[in-house]
Amino acid sequence: MSLRNWQPNRGVQLLPSPQPGFGVQLERLHRSSRFASPADDMASPASSDSDQVLVEANGSTRTLILNRPKQLNALSSAMVTGLLKCFTSYEEENTVKLLIVKGNGRAFCAGGDVAEVAQSINNDSWKYGADFFRTEFLLNYIIATYSKPQVSLLTGIVMGGGAGVSIHGRFRVATENTVFAMPETALGLFPDIGASYFLSRLPGFYGEYVGLTGARLDGAEMLACGLATHFVPLNRMSLLEESLKRVDASDPFAICGIIDQFSKQPSLKGSSSLNRMDIINRCFSKGTVEEIISTLEQEAPSVSDKLVTAAIQSLRKASPTSLKISLASIREGRLQTVGECLRREYRMVCHVMRGDFSRDFFEGCRAILVDKDRNPKWMPPTLDQVHDGVVANYFSKVDDPHWEDLNLPTRSSHGRRIVPKL
């Protein structure tokens, strides 16, 4: 079934077949049997893989629906590959002018299915994880440099990989039930999916605070710091979606004008972390994780602030290795393009998957996702045992003759701007 045969208002469709020029990158990815081929995706309407991303066609608008509600729409390998096919195909299809991305159920997307990745690595090879992240990062890059407008409707949970398929897009619409977080350091990972690009561009040192502590932000905070471009009340989201489906334009100003009609300017709660930017900047501007924690502890007796206490607790519970490589990654990201951030993060995540310098990722998955005892035994267990040389090693090429750096296609744009509305 070709995209050119699709008609408006035909409802939910299967994933599209790729168009000519789909690219060597994805073709090479499909050599792994772990990833379904385009023909496999189209073969059976009842197949679980093809149902994980649904496509609704309305005129020149395509709505991509993340469809694993029981898993909070966590991104599986099939979903990532399916989304990549959709984005690449629709960019070349002249009759498609606007993409809407949303989740089915109470989450937009709770992140990548890291439990699936960890289990597959244990059962097979670290290269499964490398392939998963290679595909995901390529998708993030395509979204970040996309030539057509993308509107992400961020209802419910938006974490990790869910941020990767939305924050890089042009329009991000939050609402009163949106919950955003990058909780990777508690899992023995680091904020990836190009997060070192967008976190490093938040006001002051707010990105370091969000990325290291895994702090949760609501919709108003997302709008205020620039992670969201709009805030639309939940009871108006369906009206917005219907209006967008009637659009016949790729002009971002026209799309923005439609979203503006349903938007409002929410007030920050008194307890919002954005009202504590003086403390956040003072503490999270420090050069090391040890100095950040020390400064927070010095602040704690005098300010009697829940934010400070919660930040200290989060940092104390997180993987020491993850904290150090995360801080280094965000600081590097301040001076890099989105493509450079993704290439570096790919090196980092491959070292994590291989367990070259620490196996905290697998221990975090065990403690948080499998056994759920929430008592990970990090190795090394303390920050002073994670030396600068080890941190630097995460940024190096992987010592494997079959490993390759992330090779990204040449694109005309270098990533969306983060515009705070404080």
Automatic annotation (TrEMBL):
InterPro entries: ClpP/crotonase-like_dom_sf, ECH_dom, HIBYL-CoA-H. Residues 62-395 form the Enoyl-CoA hydratase/isomerase domain. One of its GO terms (biological process) is L-valine catabolic process. One of its GO terms (molecular function) is 3-hydroxyisobutyryl-CoA hydrolase activity. The keyword Disulfide bond does not apply. Its EC number is 3.1.2.4. Pfam families: ECH_2. PANTHER family: 3-HYDROXYISOBUTYRYL-COA HYDROLASE, MITOCHONDRIAL, 3-HYDROXYISOBUTYRYL-COA HYDROLASE-RELATED. Hydrolyzes 3-hydroxyisobutyryl-CoA (HIBYL-CoA), a saline catabolite. Has high activity toward isobutyryl-CoA. Could be an isobutyryl-CoA dehydrogenase that functions in valine catabolism. This is 3-hydroxyisobutyryl-CoA hydrolase.
